[in-house]
Amino acid sequence: MVEHEKKGTTEARGKGGSASASHNPKNGRVQGRTYLIVAAAIVIIAAAAVFMSYGGYSSSVPFSTFKSNLQDAKSVNLYVTYINDTQYSSEGTCFPLIIEQLAHTRKASTINFFLINQTSCIYPKGGLGSPNVSLENTSVQNCLNESSSGPSIFLNYSSSNSTRITAERMYIYGNTGYMSECPIASDFG
């Protein structure tokens, strides 16, 4: 009969029907940890999804789609972003190569070029091939607003190399080695 009572108690606990199981402090801690682990997993999965959608380095379209949109557009935008002179000089070996390749397939006046630092943006008014080039200095936001006028390439200095592509935007992140070789430039030819 003792065996039967143990069996009945175990079955009741297994079904969650035992009042003594809910008062056991160890079960409460295990249950709390389980909820904490599940909640942490959900937060990590959600953060990864947001990172991949907005800040991660992935492609939502193939490069050929972006390149086709770039070639068909009336004008294109090239943004070079930098924080300091070291980053600018590093990127300074890459963006001229990109401009050169773009100019093989379109008029230079249809290439809008923007140099963006932390506080301002400098750009040649009228595009690169304009006969009367005048440099304009404006806010970063004003320059970024121009990205809606056509496909845009964003060249950014970074400690790691990666690229994110959408149908209308290409974000290139590269370190000094990447910028000096600038392998992406040949893809625009």
Please describe what this structure looks like:
With 189 residues, the chain is an alpha/beta fold. 47% of the residues lie in helices and 20% in strands. The chain has eight helices and seven strands. It has a seven-stranded mixed beta sheet. Strand 6 and strand 7 form a beta hairpin. The longest helix is centred in the first third of the chain and has 31 residues. The radius of gyration is 28 Å and the shape is globular. The chain starts with a helix and ends in an 8-residue tail after the last helix. 18% of the residues are buried. The N terminus is likely disordered.
Q: What labels describe this entry?
A:
7-stranded mixed beta sheet; 20% strand; globular; 189 residues; alpha/beta
A few lines on this structure:
With 189 residues, the chain is an alpha/beta fold. It is 47% helix and 20% strand. 18% of the residues are buried.
SSE order:
HHHHEHHEEEHEEEH
Nearest-integer average pLDDT: 79
Strand content: 15-25%
| Net shape | globular
Largest sheet: 7 strands, mixed
Helical run tally = 8
Summarize the amount of helix as a percent range: 40-55%
- How are the strands of the largest sheet arranged? 4-3-2-1-5-7-6
Weakly predicted, low-confidence segments: 1-22, 43-57
Q: Which class best fits the helix and strand makeup? A: alpha/beta
Radius of gyration computed on alpha carbons:
28 Å
Q: Tally the beta strands.
A: 7
